[in-house]
Write a structure and sequence with these properties.
The chain is 32% helix and 30% strand. By secondary structure, it is α+β, with helices and mostly antiparallel strands. The model has no long low-confidence stretch (mean pLDDT 80). The longest helix is centred in the C-terminal third of the chain and has 30 residues, at 147-176. The chain folds into two domains: 2-115, Immunoglobulin-like, CATH 2.60.40; 118-176. The strands form three sheets. A six-stranded mixed beta sheet has the order 2-11-10-5-6-7, with no helix packed on it.
Amino acid sequence: MVHGVGHAVFAYFGEEIVLNCSVDSHIPPERLEEVKWRRTDQGMLVLLYQHGEVLPDSSHERYRGRAEFFTTEIPKGNFSLRLRNLRTEDKGEYICEAHSGLLLGNTTVELLSLGLSTTHQLIVVLCMIAFGLSIASLIHFIKTGTDRGVMLVHFSLVFSPNILIFVAFILWGFIEG
């Protein structure tokens, strides 16, 4: 018997999530031929346990270094998957399959829409501030046509929004990298 969570799972970008998979069998977990996690919608191998050994190098490149079993829990039949540094493309359906001889059991877990992390929300706020500064500068330029006002408008239109957008894109690139 292979058991999972029984409901959809939600997570935030950049964080980690645990997809549950428990194998209840008369066969000791270390003697199972194979337990694997894969994407059902794309057929990608996420992580493989075969003949008593975790084989992270067999994972699809998208999951290498991010997917792992709780190795101390495997003797108890716990083959839950820890997926770190969640990305947008991680959204989808995952299946945990256990094989031993002719016996096969599986459970599926759906990872639904990933929410915005605190850093993503900060980036959105920075972009909104940049937009607001641009509008305020334009209004100020229309109301005052003086030299001092022109300098203020140039600074506000050229430097402030660009600096904020630059910071926002650097943060976004670091997160999604």
